[in-house]
Amino acid sequence: MIGHQAQKLEELVSSTAAKKSKKTRFIAVTSGKGGVGKSTISSNLAYVLSQNGLNVGIFDADIGLANLDVMFNVKIKKNILHVLKGEASVSDILIPITRNLILIPGESGDEILKYSDKALFERFMSEAEILDKLDVMIIDTGAGIGDHIKMFIDAADDVIVVTVPDPAAITDAYATIKTIATFRDDINLIMNQVKSEKEAIAVYEKIKKVALANIGEKLNIKLLGKINSDIKVSSSVKQRALFSVMHPGSIVHKDILSIANAINKNLERDVLVMPSESGLSGLFKRLVKHF
Ligand SMILES: Nc1ncnc2c1ncn2[C@@H]1O[C@H](COP(=O)(O)OP(=O)(O)OP(=O)(O)O)[C@@H](O)[C@H]1O
């Protein structure tokens, strides 16, 4: 049974890879603790990347606690749960946010937990060709490190761990990094709600030092960027608007822009370096390992 599923997925990989000319970059955004700004960052980052001219998808994979519809102030009729139940196709549930940004809505109730992770992947991925035109797909995972989150993180091209500089959040971020390090060496960090770049670098250096000493020298933890603590962020969230739209002159918008630029640079470099392993076909290949 497992072999058959793997074979089906492999067939899907080769047919999708053959048809595809463009590579989609999958970026998983995760955190140790909840409430550190993962969804706020994912949504503003997706928006800014799309404004840079990229075709962007954002997948609300925060199973059971999906809230990106609130971030983008859109009404959702059907979501990933309907796809899992066979009541909708992936294309039925896509919500256009801007001309080149689409939301793939998640489920905020707990019914989705009845469906196995395997079913989620099979049904979703079997229709994922529709997402071929995307340059980037941001996957907003839940907090913590449950099995489905691990699968997303393992399969993604890049993983971003978001944390804030309070000790409890740092401890949880470190625990998440330790788990991720059991299956991948490259981890990006975003320090959210800091007072300054200096504070972000100081916390990052501390995490890196402990991680290298205890997890291993092979681990490559990079500071992707920081976002200042700013009331404009929380007030935008309350108004169901993106701070990058509401406050384009703010430091926090500049912070997101510089994170988007760093991602853009990675996109250009890695597409040149290893085209066969990036994008949708690469994601499929990595997912196949789990079946
Ligand atoms: N840089 C910031 N400055 C001020 N407030 C912020 C900042 N980033 C996030 N917040 C606030 O923190 C709260 C939590 O943010 P968000 O919902 O994005 O976190 P999360 O990690 O996605 O949470 P969950 O795990 O529950 O999905 C929100 O009210 C948001 O406005």
Automatic annotation (TrEMBL):
Please tell me whether the keyword Amino-acid biosynthesis is annotated for this protein.
no
What stretch or stretches form a coiled coil here? none
Keywords attached to this Swiss-Prot or TrEMBL record, sorted alphabetically, are: ATP-binding, Nucleotide-binding
Stored InterPro entries: MinD_FleN, P-loop_NTPase, ParA/MinD_ATPase, YlxH/NBP35
Q: Name one GO biological process term.
A: negative regulation of cell division
Sorted alphabetically, the Gene Ontology cellular component annotations on this record are: cytoplasmic side of plasma membrane; cytosol
Molecular-function annotations in GO: ATP binding; ATP hydrolysis activity
Q: Which residues bind ATP?
A: 33-40
Q: Which domain of life is it from?
A: Bacteria
PANTHER family on file:
CELLULOSE BIOSYNTHESIS PROTEIN BCSQ-RELATED (PTHR43384:SF4), SEPTUM SITE-DETERMINING PROTEIN MIND HOMOLOG, CHLOROPLASTIC-RELATED (PTHR43384)
Q: What is this protein called?
A: MinD/ParA family protein
